[in-house]
Amino acid sequence: MPLLHPAFLFALAAAAIPVIIHLSQRRKFKEFDVGTLRFLQIAEKKRHRRLRIEELLLLLLRIGAVALLALMFARPFLSDREKTEATQDKTLLLLDASGSMTAAMAEKATDAARKAIKEHGAVTVAQFTDAVQVLSSLEDYRPVAGASGDFNKALGWSLDHLRSEGAENTRVVIIGHFASSALPSAPPRVWPPRVQVEAIAIQPPDTRNEAVKAVELLTPFAADNMEIEARVTSSNKPREVALSSEGLNVKQTVPAGVERVLFSFRPPREEVRGFISLEGKDEWPADDRRPFAMHWAEPEPVLILDGFPGSTPFEGQGYFLQKALTASGAAHGLSPYRPEVKYGLDGRDEATQEEAPVQSIGSGFKSLFGGNKASGTGSGAGAAEEETLKPGAVDLAKFSAISICGPTAISPAEARAIAARVAKGAGLFICIDERWKPESTAALVNAKLFPESVELSGGMQQRRIAWWDRKHPALASFDGKDGGDLRMLTWRDAFTIQPSEGWKPLATLDGGHPLLLEKVTDDPTAGRVMVLAHPLTREWSDLPREPMFVPLAKSLFNTLTHYEARQHSANVRFPGTRESREIGYYQTADGTAEVVAADPAESAVIAVDAPAFCKAYALPDATEPLPPATLSAVGNGEERPKTGEWWPWLVLILLSLLTLECAVATRKSARLETSAPVDA
After folding, report:
1. What is the spatial distance between Cα 400 and Cα 343, in angstroms, rounded to a whole number?
2. For 147-168, what is each residue's pLDDT tens digit?
3. How far is Cα 179 from Cα 182, in angstroms, rounded to an integer?
4. What's the whole-model pTM score?
């Protein structure tokens, strides 16, 4: 029986300890003839006989427990000597099946594999693309057109595979196209001893490969024309690149040395599917034609309600928020948002030169939605409940998000209309300033769209953000490092907001007061509601001039409008072991589009020789002889994991022995206690 740690067998000497204790505690009696007890001799002999049997059983159990404990630390394992000797040498043959392997290159790789099999005897054959696939025979080797080839993953898999088989000496033969662009900048691993790696390079038939490497949608939002950019490999001569789609066939002549091609056209519908292709006339036709699926969408409509536009149109919060959302677009100056500003709560489309007065609930004024309150001076809820919405009021249904900047008096009917739109998925963003009063948002509080415990402290302290929820989708991009550090922004600590039920803070100032809050809801279809205890103007902290103002506004409204979940371009997948579909575009069960296209990394066909490949991966030299294999089954457990170890079973037996020993010892103690008067 082989052992991993045979030195622990010396601990078997500890089995003598229970014997010594047993012999030292044996009772010694002196016999005296007592006439009155002569009738108890028969019963006394039977009792002592049972006690001696129990003591002997306890002794054996304790000796067995000590022996099992020593044997468990010695770690015995099952060993088949013939099998161990038969697997002293193991060879694994890896064949490159990526898209850069042409039919002629695959034939050369097969010939090199046959030669390696003759030299090394028993060989496990496998091919690799994005994953490794073991082959039943060399005849099953087939390169996959357009597939990616991961040499690092293939080499790592070979080590894991050979170690799991417990081979003493291992050899890896890797055959493929070693592209210079795929070499690592530093060796990805340190190779263990007793491993040889032989690299056989299959040179490509040509160093030129014309390919369409990528397709990008430059105008994800509706415009006059849809613009799609294709990136092709550089060439020293002009060539023609074509875009073919449903009812479209556009061609562009690309000058020599140019790698970007722009297609501008009016799409027949919002989603366009097709191919961009060129005449490569090379040995790699799979990357000459690249599929695409692009979705052209309307910008997200956002309603901005500015309660205090200021003396000019360039002072209100609505102005700065509108500019931030308009500037937050990427492609060609287009924005993913279409903000619409309403100045004041009366629904005016143009700002007046007079500052809008603060109104209270119940006072007569024309509401945002065109409804009129009952005239009078009463401020009770009865007058507010009489308000109705006129036909032709602002249609909230068309907006993906609503922003209330500096709310004045909002009626219960208006609050109910906003709450109904939020319940159907629209986001709501509210920011307040020093002109806020409790009656300004009382209707929003009743509609559960604004926290209850808000107080204007009027503080002038300039503070930084001490904490923000970095897991929240609206703030996750600000990681405090490369993504941006919100602690660089300055805020005025003017509001005291106590924690209330149904609201959670997303950002807190260093004074302890929440700055940004969000409503907690269990309804996944409802929109998000956020409250910012700070205006978006330059009055308090010159916030709009900060470089992070635009990214912050964009991130907040990405979450409020669910823009982050929108898909403008299809997900791209590469052929390989995990992707068996042919090159083309597909519609998934959940409605999203997917494209299977050739891996652009395989379009770079300039290769290096085998020594350069081995140097880049720091592969062991295959020409050096391996050290003699150790035939002893006992070895270093770290070098080769042992299968069939006994210690889990020994632990189970040891626990069973200890349980039995405890039961016998308890039974013996009980008998001694009940028989104490007889011994006396």
Report:
1. 19
2. 999 999 999 998 888 777 766 6
3. 5
4. 0.61
| C-beta of residue 298 within 8 angstroms of C-beta of residue 222 | yes
Q: Helix (H, G, I), strand (E, B), or coil: what is residue 550? A: helix
Q: Whole-angstrom Cα distance, residue 174 to residue 157?
A: 12
Mean pLDDT of 113-117: 92
Other C-beta atoms lying within 10 Å of the C-beta of residue 407 = 23
Q: What are phi and psi of 89, to 5 degrees?
A: -120, 130
Which SS3 state, helix, strand or coil, does residue 213 take?
Answer: strand
Separation of alpha carbons 430 and 536, rounded Å = 11
Tokens 């790699």 belong to 284
Q: 647-674 vs 41-74: helix axis angle to the nearest 10?
A: 160
Q: 3-class DSSP state for residue 276?
A: strand
Distance in angstroms (rounded) separating the CA atoms of residues 240 and 217:
20
Which residues are CB-contacts of 208 (< 8 A; sequence separation ≥ 6)?
Answer: 235, 282, 605
- pLDDT band at residue 17, thresholds of 50, 70 and 90? confident
Fold annotation for 82-207+606-617: Rossmann fold (3.40.50)
Adjacent-strand bridge partners of 179:
607
Tokens at 463, concatenated = 């503070």
pLDDT for residue 375:
35
Query: What is the H or E stretch that residue 454 is in?
Result: strand 454-456
CA-CA distance, 475 to 138, in Å (whole number)?
A: 53
Q: What is the pLDDT of residue 641?
A: 43
Q: Is the pLDDT of residue 295 over 80?
A: yes
Q: Residue 3's CB: how many other CB atoms inside 10 A? A: 18
Among 2-6, 36-40, 63-67, which range has the highest average pLDDT?
63-67
Pull the structure tokens for residue 611.
């020594």
Q: Do 284 and 603 contact (CB within 8 A), yes or no? A: yes
Confidence of residue 36 (pLDDT cuts 50, 70, 90): low
Highest mean pLDDT among 25-39, 567-581, 605-619: 605-619
Say whether pLDDT at 373 is over 60: no
Phi, psi of 47 (to 5 degrees): -65, -45
Amino acid at 3: L
Buried b vs exposed e over 577-609: b needs ≥16 C-beta within 10 Å? bebeeebebbeeeeeebbbbbbbbbbbbbebbe
Strand ranges of the sheet holding 260-265, from the earlier edge strand across to the other edge: 212-217, 226-232, 260-265
Q: Which residues pair with 391 in a beta bridge?
A: none
DSSP string, 476-528: TT--SSTT--GGGSEEE--EEE---TTEEEEEEETTS-EEEEEE--S-TTSPP
Task: State mean pLDDT over 524-547.
Answer: 92
More confident position, 362 or 258: 258
Each domain of the chain, given as residue ranges in start order, spans: 6-79+644-679, 82-207+606-617, 212-274+286-297+570-603, 300-357+394-565
Mean pLDDT of the chain: 81
CATH of domain 300-357+394-565: 3.40.50.880
Report whether 57 contacts 664 (CB < 8 A): yes
Inform me whether the pLDDT recorded for 392 exceeds 60. no
Tell me whether the CATH fold assigned to 82-207+606-617 matches the one assigned to 300-357+394-565: yes
